[in-house]
Amino acid sequence: MSFLISPALAADAPAAAPDAGMFNIIFLVGFGLIFYFFMWRPQAKRAKEHKNLIAGLAKGDEVITAGGIIGKVTRLTDDYVVLEVSEGTELKFQKAHVAAELPKGTIKGI
């Protein structure tokens, strides 16, 4: 009956390295640091900059929306901004969709 039992199963298993637990902890900490510096921190920085941009909007600013529409701010409310995209044409957007503030005179230069 010994032909059904492999001799490799009867051999003793090699002992684990004594520092294997420490390596796993260092690996997890390293992975956490990589996640923090390459994913979470840059995203939090962009969100903070966007929040400051939205809070600093004022009448007369030239902005571009997330959809690529360029306009001049004519009116502001708590949640919305009205942009004049051409002479006599105004569009209403949510403030969150303002992507960037443009330098003064950009619209005239286009």
UniProtKB/TrEMBL annotation:
The chain crosses the membrane at residues 20-39. Keywords: Cell membrane, Membrane, Protein transport, Translocation, Transmembrane, Transmembrane helix, Transport. It is a single-pass membrane protein. The keyword Transmembrane applies. Its main location: membrane. It is found in: Cell membrane. It comes from the Bacteria. Belongs to the YajC family. NCBIfam families: yajC. This is Sec translocon accessory complex subunit YajC.
